[in-house]
From TrEMBL:
One Pfam family linked to the record: RRM_8
Residue ranges constituting the RRM domain according to the UniProt record: 18-96
Gene Ontology terms for molecular function: mRNA binding
Protein name: RRM domain-containing protein
GO biological process, one term: mRNA processing
Compartments in which it is found: Nucleus
PANTHER family: MATRIN 3/NUCLEAR PROTEIN 220-RELATED
Entry-linked InterPro entries: Nucleotide-bd_a/b_plait_sf, PTBP1-like_RRM2, PTBPH1/PTBPH2_RRM1, PTBPH1/PTBPH2_RRM2, RBD_domain_sf, RRM_dom
Main location: nucleus
Function text: Plays a role in pre-mRNA splicing. Binds to the polypyrimidine tract of introns. May promote the binding of U2 snRNP to pre-mRNA.
Organismal lineage: Eukaryota, Viridiplantae, Streptophyta, Embryophyta, Tracheophyta
Amino acid sequence: MSSSSGQTQFRYTQTPSKVLHLRNLPWECTEEELVELCKPFGKIVNTKCNVGANRNQAFVEFLDQNQAISMVSYYASSSEPAQVRGKTVYIQYSNRQEIVNNKSCGDVAGNVLLVTIEGVEAGDVSIDVIHLVFSAFGFVHKIATFEKAAGFQALIQFTDAETASSARNALDGRSIPRYLLPEHVGSCHLRISFSAHTDLNIKFQSHRSRDYTNPYLPVNPSAIEGTVQFPLGPDGKKKEPESNVLLASIENMQYAVTVDVLHTVFSAFGTVQKIAIFEKNGGIQALVQYPDVTIAAVAKEALEGHCIYDGGYCKLHLSYSRHTDLSVKVYIH
């Protein structure tokens, strides 16, 4: 037991402080779990979670120093170590006398969240899935996604800090539901902090960025990066002049079909540059523009007769359009 007595001496040789430094926490440790561990010893006035390069350290500030001393003393002499989720937590006095500001980087509540999606490539989680997950908490104004050294990240703008906080509290450390992810993705944890931004500047609708408050924002083909994910379709089936623009007629409209829905369906085959939806002969039709004929041909072959919703609802019939470049500067809703 010499190592534990070494640990004990190490603790006692420090200057006591009402702030304790905790190490070896689970990296997704929450503030609630810290409070649960420490509250038997006194009143906690401040915490700082997920610090350090591995996000496995934390600081806890008690109301007074004697409470911190009692916690250190208890675990120094206890045969049971302090534990969170089965991991032994090492406790020592901090060299600071107070947690100066719990609201340091990423913790000042704002209306924009910075979300890091761990364990995925940029193409694995679509902007529509991100929108679906976060709009459960309130109206999402804008989303911008990008790749950084930290991984695939998204900025998500809500109406106010209260809504953003409720989304953060519910989702931080959680995973996106499996059924919304491609099969090859094992898990994707969400790491969520507050961004200093208050209003995102979205110039174009693309599958990198969306402004849900402005459906008439232009679609920028060059802003939409996509790759053909499927091999080329069967050749030599030129029954009609091929085109890079498909005309989709939608039958059995049990549910509303929006530009976003169509974008999700058609972008499985490659970059969708523009979409126009209109009513014709009492039904809904849409024009969907791809960069070239090859992608359009693959999409047409795959989606002809396909129902967007289970149960035979919103069935697609596809033909080639005479258009090659839609004049729409906007998503037409």
